[in-house]
Amino acid sequence: MGIKFDFSSIEDYVASHLRLFIFSTAGLVLLVGIIAVSVFFMAVSGEEQTMVPDVRGKEITEALMELQVKELYPRLQLRYSLTSRDKGLIIEQEPMPGTIVKAGRRIRLVVSMGVIINKVENFIGRDIDDVRMDLQTLYASSGGLPLLSLKEPLMYDFSQEKPGTILAQKPEPGNDISGPLSLEFVVSRGPERRAVSVPQFTGLSLAAALEVLGNTGFNFSFDIKETYPGEQGGTVVSQKPPANSSLPANTAVQLTVTTPEYIADNEVFGLFSYKIPLNPYPLSVRLEAILPSGERSRLITINFIGGDFKIPYKLPVGSVLVLSMLNRELYRETVIH
Fold first, then answer.
1. Please, which pLDDT band fits residue 95 given cuts at 50, 70 and 90?
2. Chain segment 312-322, per-residue pLDDT in tens
3. Nearest one of 288, 323, 285, 330 to 305, comparing CA atoms
4. 234 CB-near residues (< 8 Å, 6+ apart)
5. Are strands 283-290 and 296-304 parallel, antiparallel or unpaired?
6. What is the C-alpha separation between 99 and 219, in angstroms, rounded?
7. Least buried of 52, 186, 189, 253, by fewest C-beta within 10 Å?
8. Pairwise CA distance, residues 43 & 207, whole Å
9. What angle do CA 302, 306, 312 make, to 5 degrees?
10. What is the pLDDT of residues 225-259, one digit of tens each?
């Protein structure tokens, strides 16, 4: 018995699968085409790229118009500058000119507000140290060249005004400031050196001698010597020039002090020494001791013009000597055996 094939059924089966394959392939090609066309139109309709223009040095209105043409948007910041000539102008921008960015990008623009002050202040009658500190504070955070600076060295002249007082200035008060400016000052030295009478130091205790020095216009120099029989310890036993001599103010007086009669085991008698730079006029100098207990003890406060600053002291071991000028610390050292 032989097997019979239904060829008509096979042909229908193949034909149906062939049609399915053709339709699937056509559908896949159509889908790929749709995706390609979509990507193409998305790319075409996406954000355009543009070049950032250079708007530095231009007025704010002109800069905004140029950004608008490029479809760019500003982000404004205000800042003081060093000259009044650039007020209202763009002094910085980010991104930099020539950078390629997408349209719609925000561009940071820094607009100058001009200078903090636009006229020279009247400094006459003020203390030079106060003015110097004010200028340093005013421009400490500028990060660049200060708008106002002092021309050094300063000029000094004798005057009845307190030493350090500004007598004259250039440029004069009220002048316009258009850029960085150097101030020239004439500063008082105080009254012209007048003759004064040398006080009587011999026979005074060390503490008393320091008190007298603090109230006079004399520089000083101390020496220490051993106490001889007949001498009292811890006192001034000689001075040069002698008492009642007539000398110019700020003349140095040499004093010799004997060692104290009693020095405890935990104490030191010594000579503090520090070289202070010479000043155009005497400045307030203070030497004090911070005792181991934390208590502060003032040894001397005096207007000192500068030079070797030597002061005898009798202090417990571990005390700290602190030297200050105009309330600013210059130097400190610890008392040791």
1. very high
2. 999 999 999 99
3. 285
4. 205, 206, 257, 258, 259, 260, 261, 314
5. antiparallel
6. 68
7. 186
8. 92
9. 55
10. 999 988 999 999 999 999 998 877 667 899 999 99
